[in-house]
Amino acid sequence: xxxxxxxxxxxxxxxxxxxxxxxxxxxxxxxxxxxxxxxxxxxxxxxxxxxxxxxxxxxxxxxxxxxxxxxxxxxxxxxxxxxxxxxxxxxxxxxxxxxxxxxxxxxxxxxxxxxxxxxxxxxxxxxxxxxxxxxxxxxxxxxxxxxxxxxxxxxxxxxxxxxxxxxxxxxxxxxxxxxxxxxxxxxxxxxxxxxxxxxxxxxxxxxxxxxxxxxxxxxxxxxxxxxxxxxxxxxxxxxxxxxxxxxxxxxxxxxxxxxxxxxxxxxxxxxxxxxxxxxxxxxxxxxxxxxxxxxxxxxxxxxxxxxxxxxxxxxxxxxxxxxxxxxxxxxxxxxxxxxxxxxxxxxxxxxxxxxxxxxxxxxxxxxxxxxxxxxxxxxxxxxxxxxxxxxxxxxxxxxxxxxxxxxxxxxxxxxxxxx
Length: 419
Fold this sequence. Notes:
Layout: H1 5-22, E1 28-35, E2 66-71, E3 76-81, H2 94-107, E4 115-117, H3 120-126, E5 140-142, H4 143-152, H5 156-167, H6 170-183, H7 206-219, H8 224-227, E6 231-234, E7 237-240, H9 245-248, E8 252-260, E9 264-274, E10 282-292, H10 295-311, E11 313-319, E12 326-331, E13 337-341, E14 346-351, E15 358-366, E16 368-369, E17 377-385, E18 388-397, H11 406-418
Parallel strand pairs: 12-16
Antiparallel strand pairs: 1-15, 2-3, 2-10, 4-5, 6-7, 8-9, 9-10, 11-14, 12-13, 13-18, 15-17, 17-18
Helix pairs in contact: 1-11, 2-5, 2-7, 3-5, 4-5, 5-6
């Protein structure tokens, strides 16, 4: 017996609904290939301990216990040694303290014009070691001056005063520091105080310190003018910033020195230099050296790393910010396709002379099912240099794709089921 057309449609809808309820999705992977186009928003380095690509040029010999060089414009690690070995961070700790202080300023919890009290604990901490701002107990000091004291002078007293102002107590602030480290995905970092004096269990790694520094620069670029200050005078006492590269290299605009007997002389340095031929862009590098022999050595080894990082590589701009790398089909959405790309310019750094050998392949797992949010990772751009794997960059949905209505979702479920 022939089935009337209306019944046929009802059967089709019922079958689609059943497919929708059963969640039938074929496991089908699809790739697309494209050649890279030749041509500085910051990309955060990964907290995962990954080896430097063996095709990387060899860095110079660095006289430090541990080091790492990060390219923040491309998110690549250019060189590292013992970067995941636990170290005492000394005053590099103050980068996390600064992060929470600038976070409090951004949220309105703290104001630059606000005065904070100087407790006896803050004053006594300043008397421990050589780094202090010379703030006086039972006085009140402007937040802006405390920040300058913490950053330009590495003042332990100013640091504790800020910690108490943000966290209520030093202990409460240290809890905030460790929660923020967890939020960054740091596995080897544990803070016991905000200033970096030696304490059991107060540890980090060169890699994880680079993550903290990169997040500070990226999330709070307004912090950089403080880190580029060469000197600061408070209470009639003028002190120079201990980062010697601020006087030697005009492209260096930070970041932080550190020293304890256990840590040795440490420096996190960052520089920003123009990149010829890439649309007037610039490139920011960040170096971490830990455990050098002297203030002069930490400056020299950092300068050596930065100069090598700028000289040994070419920069290739693959795609502009918001430019579609590819277009992918979408199922069960109110749009049939979505453009994949990056919200930042997609830049890759390659060994000098290898720019012409860059190729890209888009990998995605199909089907892409709505809803998709703008910025959601939905694929990977796999980059090769001279035929060798080089870097994987996450691709994002450049637009949101809401779910389709009930019938659209049911219809796509049926189409997926019979593919």
